[in-house]
Amino acid sequence: MEFETVIGLEIHAQLKTETKIFCGCSTSFGAPPNTNTCPICLGMPGVLPVLNKRVVEFAVKLGLATNARINLYNQFARKNYFYPDLPKGYQTSQFDLPIVGRGEIEIEVDGVRKKIGITRIHMEEDAGKLIHDELEPVSHVDLNRTGTPLLEIVSEPDIRSPEEAVAYLKKLHAIVRYLDICDGNMQEGSFRCDANISLRPVGQEQFGIRTELKNMNSFKHVQNGLEYEIRRQRDILLDGEEVVQETLLWNPDKNCTESMRGKEDAHDYRYFPCPDLVPVEIDEAWVEEIRRSLPEMPDEKKDRFRDQYKLPEYDAVLLTGDIAVANYFESAVAAGAQPKRASNWIMTELLRELKGEDITSCRVSAGQLAALLKMIDANTISGKIAKTVFQDMMETGDDAETIVKEKNLIQVSDEGELTAIVERIVAANPDQAEDYRNGKTKIMGYFVGQLMKETKGKANPKLVNELFVKVLTQ
What we know:
Arc Repressor Mutant, subunit A; 3 domains; eight-stranded mixed beta sheet; 15 strands; 39% helix
């Protein structure tokens, strides 16, 4: 029996506001436990929340960027459940009247484009954090995160593979970063994902029984977790058994899912309108003002990079997937780098040296990279030497010109000097020279390698090849 995978994602984006959603406490990450708290975010009796207008603005921005309907009238609700890191015993969220309604974004996987529907985007507050003691059977509660503003983006069940899920997640990650409403730091939990997944026989319209994978905080975990869960559910169904509806956690150390609790449905939370907050009414003129302030979005920037800089589609997609990388590229071009060469270096040398770190932490500025690439164009250094220089730049932060001068790496382009070396190498290798003249042209690499070894890689490779051909064919 063949099965079709059905996936829906619930993404939580922590907003880049200075204060929490209903109080004036700081949202700064890394403060000592339980210091960014007050009676309001701790849910003390008699306190009243006040909505942070910036949260509403950010929600409208994301709604507009995802081609969604902005609900000018929306309402907060109480989502009732108890955990030790939720002092009030309920979460202030939105349910039947969210701020953003139906929308969609387009993804591309293996050259195939597809639109993924968005059911809704709603505002809510985050819960705290449990820290489990590794030595004793106790847990500590840090409530600094309590009340931090979130936007939850709920997709339609339109996703049919882990690859599509990751593409959708990456697209939304890029959008919130472009809008500058979320820092997208998945390691710190400011952008995280829950996945609902089920299988059904191909051709069946009714959905299968689903499970939920909670709080995955990397693209790799989403990919691996979904792949594992597809295999697990498929084995269960092929054995003639039923999948149990439950909430699971992905264990990256064991590469498997682990049961967390029975899966709740909406009625389990006993949603009802929050009596402490009046409905939110948004002025349409304000929505249009926000629309006009939207920055260039990933797809628009990708098309512009392709058209303006004559880059291949692949380059444009990769460079614009991260706003920081896109800005770095444009800064390098503005500093004089050739667009295609800059693209190649960023996609290969730079991103490899960063080893997954954010490009904003790079010790080599865009201007320094442009200066290095211009030295290649001017034949001051070879491409091979430039890679060595670049590694030194990444380690020290020094500019290319300084490193080249200190290490005497200026390219040798003196034709007379190189001709003498070429003639000497050819004379010292008569058998190889005869092989070349008899059509074994691949042996040219041997000759060039000998010369590069003698000049410590500083010879102009283009000129070297030309001189060897000239001497060997005389």
